[in-house]
Write a structure and sequence with these properties.
Elements: H1 2-15, H2 18-42, H3 52-65, H4 72-90, H5 93-116, H6 133-153, H7 161-172, H8 176-189, H9 197-222, E1 224-230, H10 234-244, E2 250-255, E3 262-270, H11 272-284, E4 290-296
Antiparallel strand pairs: 1-3, 1-4, 2-3
C-alpha cells in the first residue's frame, strides 16, 4: 500500500507542475496534427505508408472483405494497446505513460476531425483529397514527420510504429529515422493483401521519405551550438556563460602555433538564442577573440536535464 501511495503522491506532484501541462498540450496538439494527416491523406486513398495506421488500414480492409467491417480507428486502438505494454517494459516508464496518452487519443481525434469536416466533402475524385496520390503522400509525410519529431523531443511518440522504432533506436543505436524506415518497410509489404503493386511501391517510397524527414526535423529541433572561443578575456566570458546563460563550460590551455603564446580556450554547448546573446555581449563589451561555432544535433548526459554542468 505504501508503494501505491508514494506513486500516487508522485503523480499528483507532477500534475501540479507547469511542465506537465505544457507537455500535455504539446502531445495533444501533435496528435491532432497526426490524426488530421491520417484521416484526410492516408485513409481515403488507402495509402499504406509504413505505420501502424497503414497496417490498420490493411487489417480493416481484410475484415471488410470477409464481411466483418471494423473501423480503422478501432484497429489502431487495439494494436497500440499491445505495443504500449512493450513501450512500458522495454523503453522507460515516462515514455510508456506519455505514449499511452498519445496512442489512445489518435482514434478519437480522427473521429473528431471527421465530425468537424467529413472526408466525403473534400474528396476530389472519390479516393483523394488532393486529387493526386503523390500530393496526398507528401502532405501526409510532412504532417506526420513534424508530429513525430515534436513528440520524440519530449520523450513521447505517436504510438504504434514509433514504439518499435524507439526500441530499435535504444538497443541498436540506429538513427530514429532509419528505425522508422526499416520497420515501416516491413509493414508496407502487408499492403499486397488489399492494394495493387503500384500502391505498395508508393507506400515504400513514402516510408523512406518519412524516415528522412523525421531525422531532419529531429536534428533541427535538437540543434545546439558547440562554441569554442580563444580570448584573453576568457574569465569574463566564463562568468557570463555560467552566471547569465546558466550553462556549463570547459577551459583548455592552448598554445598558438604561430605566436607560441599560451592562452585559454573556452568551450560551451548553447542554444541558438544563447549563442546570439553571447555574441551580443562580446560586441557590446568590446571583447575580442578567435571564435568557431558548429551545429550539434545529438547530446547525451545531463545537458538537457540540468542546465549547469561541464561538457568536458
Amino acid at each position: 500500500m505504501s508503494k501505491i501511495k508514494d506513486a500516487a503522491n508522485t503523480a499528483w506532484n507532477a500534475v501540479q507542475t507547469w511542465t506537465f501541462w505544457k507537455e500535455l498540450f504539446i502531445m495533444t496538439a501533435g496528435m491532432a496534427v497526426a490524426a488530421l494527416a491520417v484521416n484526410y491523406f492516408l485513409v481515403p486513398g488507402k495509402l499504406i505508408v509504413g505505420s501502424i495506421s497503414g497496417l490498420s488500414i490493411v487489417l480493416s480492409g481484410i475484415f471488410e472483405m470477409i464481411g466483418m467491417p471494423v473501423k480503422v480507428s478501432t484497429v489502431i486502438i487495439i494494436i497500440n494497446a499491445v505495443l504500449l505494454i512493450l513501450a512500458y517494459l522495454l523503453i522507460d516508464k515516462e515514455f510508456g505513460i506519455k505514449t499511452v496518452y498519445t496512442a489512445m487519443i489518435l482514434g478519437p481525434l480522427m473521429e473528431m476531425w471527421e465530425k468537424i469536416l467529413p472526408t466525403s466533402k473534400l474528396l476530389t475524385d472519390g479516393t483523394s483529397v488532393m486529387g493526386d496520390v503523390w500530393l496526398d503522400l507528401c502532405c501526409f509525410v510532412l504532417l506526420l514527420s513534424a508530429s513525430q519529431a515534436i513528440l520524440f523531443h519530449i520523450n513521447a511518440s505517436t504510438g504504434g510504429l514509433d514504439i518499435l522504432a524507439k526500441i530499435v533506436n535504444k538497443y541498436l543505436h540506429f538513427d530514429i529515422g532509419a528505425s522508422i524506415s526499416v520497420a515501416g518497410a516491413i509493414i508496407c509489404c502487408s499492403a499486397f493483401a488489399i492494394n495493387p503493386f503500384r500502391m505498395v511501391v508508393v507506400g515504400l517510397i513514402g516510408t523512406w521519405i518519412n524516415g528522412i524527414v523525421v531525422d531532419y526535423f529531429t536534428a533541427s529541433i535538437n540543434k545546439r551550438k558547440r562554441v569554442c572561443i580563444i580570448s584573453s578575456s576568457h574569465e569574463i566570458l566564463r562568468k557570463y556563460i555560467i552566471e547569465e546563460l546558466d550553462r556549463g563550460c570547459s577551459l583548455y590551455k592552448v598554445t598558438g602555433g604561430y605566436s607560441g603564446k599560451e592562452n585559454v580556450e573556452i568551450q560551451a554547448l548553447l542554444t541558438q538564442d544563447e549563442f546570439s546573446s553571447l555574441m551580443d555581449y562580446m560586441k557590446k563589451n568590446d571583447i575580442h577573440g578567435f571564435i568557431t561555432a558548429g551545429n550539434v544535433s545529438e547530446i547525451y548526459g545531463l545537458w538537457n536535464k540540468h542546465k549547469r554542468g561541464p561538457i568536458g
